[in-house]
UniProtKB/TrEMBL annotation:
Keywords: Methyltransferase, Polyamine biosynthesis, Transferase. Pfam families: Spermine_synth (PF01564). One of its GO terms (biological process) is methylation. This is EEF1A lysine and N-terminal methyltransferase. It comes from Sesamum latifolium.
């Protein structure tokens, strides 16, 4: 695989977890047994700012020059059979990143080293700026990203010199808008709560940069509690991603699963939530990107999650299944613990959103009016709301990967 010149220090190309994820996510038709990275030696032990316009691009002449070396690195077994020299495919790593500016590299007691960066993306000629959070333990996966805008007129050639402001009005992480759309399953119930003078309450397991918490608070008027395992991540969210802590946003550092189990023991109705959002992923890089972690699928945990919901509450989970079998197991576990289960296919070939209800709500999907539902349709794409599909018991979900 050809490393983009200038990105050699990026954790994607300079760490074992990054290499492993590249190997597991290979686009080749046959599984790779050996991955060879071709590029310059890293110029720095930590990720550095990047500008694609300052570096030369890959050429076919370079591939021809490298061919003998790459052939020599083949395993001996590749030469058995017809005796021909095996062809080694040379992959070109491509993403939307045109430029990047490193804001900080810091370390948390739970997640380890993390990187905060501003990036310029280009897709089909359209440019956009985002702020991102990535962990070294899984560097190919963007933990959090929000849209940013340059302040005033400035030169954009060097992002290190550009001052940005946050744009929190849009959720750019692909699965967050579908997660918010999942609330529509109980919109009729939430309308009644509002009429009776009750504030809507949400619990978010996994905070990251806090984009989801801030969105629920500002745009849908929820009182939100967020639980993040690493206190340094919470500090990063406040410093770089605009996450505030006020009378309607409550932040806790700790294990989200333990937090739910403890909360489930409290029988007070005041401790119940209308919505519980789960955005937790596996911490094991050998599993690839996988969510939720297998620990969350224990029956005791799922029942505890159900217990912290109000009677008509809903559990909404970001799911990144590693295989069709894993997704079917996921479906089965949720159906054992909850009354009904719905799903949204995010459409990116990776994420699904599972929506588990505490009581029967199927008729609520036909509820098309109300202040809350109308507000919801203004802030998330209606296509996600319309695509919500109930998963019948013992039926296969829409997994296609």
């Amino acid at each position: 695989m050809w490393i983009p010149p200038g990105r050699e220090s990026d954790w994607i190309f300079s760490t074992f977890p990054g290499h492993l994820q590249l190997l597991l996510s290979s686009p080749t038709t046959q599984p790779l047994s050996r991955l060879i990275l071709v590029g310059n030696s890293p110029s720095h032990p930590q990720p550095t700012s990047y500008n694609s316009t300052l570096h030369f691009s890959y050429s076919t002449a370079l591939q021809q020059n490298l061919a003998p070396l790459l052939s020599a690195l083949n395993p001996k077994s590749a030469f058995f059979g017809d005796g021909e020299v095996p062809e080694v495919p040379l992959l070109i790593y491509e993403d939307e990143v045109v430029k990047s500016s490193v804001l900080e590299v810091c370390q948390g007691p739970c997640v380890g080293e993390m990187l905060i960066e501003n990036v310029e993306l280009e897709n089909d000629g359209v440019k956009e700026f985002r702020r991102r959070l990535r962990f070294k333990r899984m560097p190919n996966f963007v933990q959090t990203q929000i849209r940013i805008r340059p302040k005033g007129e400035c030169c954009l050639e060097n992002l290190d010199t550009v001052e940005f402001e946050l744009d929190t009005g849009v959720l750019v992480q692909p699965y967050l808008s579908p997660m918010v759309a999942g609330i529509s399953v109980i919109s009729q119930f939430l309308e009644g709560q509002l009429r009776d003078g009750f504030r809507r309450k949400a619990l978010c397991l996994g905070v990251g940069g806090g984009a989801l918490l801030g969105f629920l608070r500002v745009h849908l008027d929820f009182e939100v509690a967020g639980v993040e395992e690493d206190e340094v991540v919470l500090e990063v969210a406040k410093r770089y991603f605009g996450l505030g802590s006020d009378e309607l946003i409550h932040l806790f550092a700790g294990d989200g699963i333990k937090y739910v189990k403890t909360l489930a023991k409290n029988e007070s109705e005041k401790s119940r939530f209308h919505v519980v959002m789960v955005d937790l992923d596996s911490t094991d890089p050998t599993m690839g990107v996988c969510a939720p972690p297998k620990e969350f699928l224990r029956k005791s945990v799922l029942l505890a999650a159900r217990a912290v919901l109000s009677k008509e509450g809903v559990l909404i989970v970001n799911a990144i299944p590693s295989s069709k079998l894993y997704y079917e197991r996921l479906i089965s576990k949720f159906q054992e613990a909850f009354e009904e289960l719905y799903e949204i296919d995010v459409g990116n070939g990776e994420n699904f959103v599972l929506i588990a209800t505490n009581s029967k709500t199927e008729s609520a999907l036909d509820f098309n009016e109300g202040a809350f539902l109308n507000k919801l349709k203004l802030v998330v794409s209606r296509s996600y709301i319309d695509s919500i599909r109930k998963i019948p018991k013992n039926a296969h979900a829409a997994f296609d990967k």
